[in-house]
Specification:
The protein contains 13 helices and eleven strands. The chain is α/β, with parallel strands linked by helices. Helix 5 packs parallel to helix 13 (292-308) and helix 10 crosses helix 11. The longest helix has 17 residues, at 292-308.
Length: 334
């Protein structure tokens, strides 16, 4: 009897593609023409799969892995709550990990790739994972759903509307009367940051205001301090700023206080994402709340659909971001 490798050679595809067709796997992406070519070769050679082995392979462990960058980041709270709630409703356990542990040869990666120990992986990263690790993940039959990685051409993904979030934050400042608004934080190679910056640019252009180049200073509190330094050294000081994430916005508030810049008297600040810290900092931070709990629920629903071979609803979720007005914004004083 012909082997999978022989069928792959004749069909001019990989053995993993043949395995996906033989096992009825729906989460492996391939064109209809490629699938038809594989099926034609299978029929030609008379390949008959081992039903007992297939049944064993299809047994599910009832466990999914959730891997994010920086587990300590409070913005993940709502996302994880949504994931846990949806997983519990299906009787699934959740293994939680940090992308810092996902190195080639690491025990955590070995467990993720181990035969049958994990049914699916939810992964949120900002493009900082080693390419070899991503290649290993994509080569395995275990479904991988990316969180907040819009339009990734190689993977299944679900995301909130980050472009809308950036646009809403900017429009809020423009409607308050600000004309010179800047964007700071995030990384220009991050799809999430790029979408939020595109939202900023869209809003500025629609208001016939000149968008400025983004100051992509990274993530976390320090990124906010660096962002404040960038706008101070830009020649003209703005009256409003959109910050890529809430933690960086907290850092920017601290830097403004250190330099005697009054918020919101001299500078209005809006942070994208909402977390408890927004109510703790002074002044309390105006934010764009993203529907992260809904994203977590949708991600688990899509994992279930992939495992069951039913239609998926991938892409940007319908739930909209929401402006949460606090004390860090006001009409410009000049």
């Amino acid at each position: 009897m012909a082997t999978l490798k022989e069928i792959a050679r004749r069909a001019e595809v990989s053995a993993s593609a043949v395995s996906a067709v033989v096992n009825g796997t729906t989460h492996t992406r391939m064109s209809a023409q490629t699938r038809a070519r594989i099926e034609a070769v299978i029929a030609e050679v008379g390949y008959v799969p081992n039903d007992a082995a297939r049944a064993l392979r299809r047994q599910q462990a009832g466990t999914i892995a959730v891997v994010v960058e920086g587990l300590e980041n409070p913005v993940y709270k709502e996302l994880l709550l949504g994931i846990y709630e949806a997983a519990e409703a299906r009787g699934w356990a959740v293994v939680l990990g940090d992308t810092a542990w996902m190195r080639s040869g690491s025990p955590f990666l070995a467990r993720l790739l181990g035969q049958g120990s994990i049914d699916a992986i939810l992964l949120r990263h900002e493009g900082l994972i080693d390419g070899d690790v991503l290649a290993h993940l994509r080569a395995r039959p275990t479904p991988v759903v990316l969180l907040e990685q819009q339009s990734d051409p190689h993977s299944h993904w679900v995301a909130v509307d980050d472009l809308m979030a950036g646009r809403m934050a900017t429009e809020f400042l423009l409607q308050a009367g600000h004309t010179d608004v800047r964007f700071v934080g995030g990384l220009d190679e991050s799809r999430t940051s790029a979408a939020r910056y595109d939202g900023y640019v869209t809003a500025m252009k629609q208001a016939r205001r000149r968008p400025r180049a983004g100051s992509f200073t990274g993530f976390g509190v320090e990124a906010g301090s660096l962002g404040f330094a960038a706008i101070r050294s830009s020649g003209t000081f703005p009256t409003g700023v959109v910050v890529n994430n809430v933690m960086s916005a907290a850092g920017l508030l601290a830097a403004a206080a250190d330099h005697g810049v009054e918020v919101p008297g001299q500078l209005s600040v809006v942070g994208i994402h909402d977390a408890e810290i927004a109510d703790i900092v002074r002044p309390r931070l105006t934010t764009v709340r993203l529907p992260m709990r809904a994203l977590g629920v949708r991600a688990v629903d899509q994992v279930a659909a992939l495992l069951e071979g039913t239609p998926t609803t991938l892409g940007v979720i319908e739930s909209r971001p929401q402006i949460i007005v606090r004390a860090s914004t006001a009409p410009p004083s000049r």
